[in-house]
């Protein structure tokens, strides 16, 4: 599948934003979230900025962005529509949570209630995003539980890494260590989920073959001898993406190294220091590596996934 | 509404006979010609006269070769277009309701006025039936010539999809596959018509008829395993020739 930049940015940015919101709500409920206004403005502001930027970028790849509002209508059957509805509904509790937290209520029950509902809506929105992919039978690499697990873990993981950095920058050493511990746990969980996802791709049997696609399988091996067209077409550009697939193994190693291993080492180091300039620098390194790793992971998620329509263009089994 | 209809009054569709298709691409060309001026017009072309011509087509003709365990092969020309599935995944994934299946005849269409061009329907289709129009910013697909088959300005025999009326070999048939008594349903029953990728759960309406089994080395082919010669290239005898031909032959020999 063609890895569109706008979709890679959308899923990683909004995933990180929703992930931040989840942990802000959890820390608030535990009574650990700092209540000062500058931190609130930066943390909630960044989370909202990531969510909004992601959602906006997802409309950039549309042929008619001005009609995007129509995508909210078919929630009964379409996961894409459900995602749009969930994303918009999530703004209500998340916005109220941020407002309450930064103004009158602070740790009041109302703010926490909005926070918990907002966190649940954030996870629900990430889930609907993952189901857009996991519901497509035509792409066996996506149609499995590991796709859903990947999105549900990597979003909150990314959010935790960002928040750990923010706490380090603002010098909240106490809550920083808690956040680093959560981030480390999610980084370990994340690398396990991705490893199991790739294992699933390796061991699962193909769903469709050139034989079933043409119905000629009973005649023996089915091979394409003449393509309908000599140059590319939409199907091959969108669904037959092959560029750099030969680097897949290298890119997987880069994903594991930058997305998980480096952040685990640097955040672990920062945790041991329990504050100070060095901890901030290590947290920054952890975030930079993690963000690059997740972008690579998302690129691979698309580029590696084979679509069954390629069976009509020379692929033997998908 | 992108929820699929429970049932449709008719199941209009095509039956493609792979035993007859000669791979001439006439169906694709006439499809392009009709639809470039019809409901889905224009079927945009990019760089049509350049080095890499490209564009929106509803019909694509592939050629496959099969090889069995004995090493015997068969060439099969394979037209590919929308199968107007009963459980069309392209319809249910659509977030806007632009992609829909008609209750009256089961034709799957795109309402181009509300399509946002998200392309998800083309991801959901196993058959590559949908092609995105980069210029119009909307998805396009086979309409089963909905603007031709009901067109009372046309003579009755012309009210079939363009690909069917143009096929010089008669490899394509059109009709109601929901009616077991229709000509197309009888044809499917008689010839063992089948679904493409049934494992995808789409329940295609269109059916494909398999190529008839070839009996290699029995009558059809010569002793050398190659196709038999129709006639010897030089004729040694004058048997059956007329009086003048025999007379000329005698003078010339």
From TrEMBL, chain A:
UniProt keyword annotation of Transmembrane present: yes
- Offer an example of a GO molecular function term for this protein: oxidoreductase activity
**What keywords would UniProt list here?**
Membrane, Oxidoreductase, Transmembrane, Transmembrane helix
Cite the Pfam families for this sequence: DmsC
Q: Which InterPro entries match?
A: DmsC
Q: What class of enzyme is it?
A: oxidoreductase
Q: Which domain of life is it from?
A: Bacteria
**Assigned EC number:** 1.8.5.3
List where the protein spans the membrane.
Answer: 7-33, 39-63, 84-104, 110-136, 148-171, 177-197, 255-288
Protein's UniProt name? Dimethyl sulfoxide reductase anchor subunit
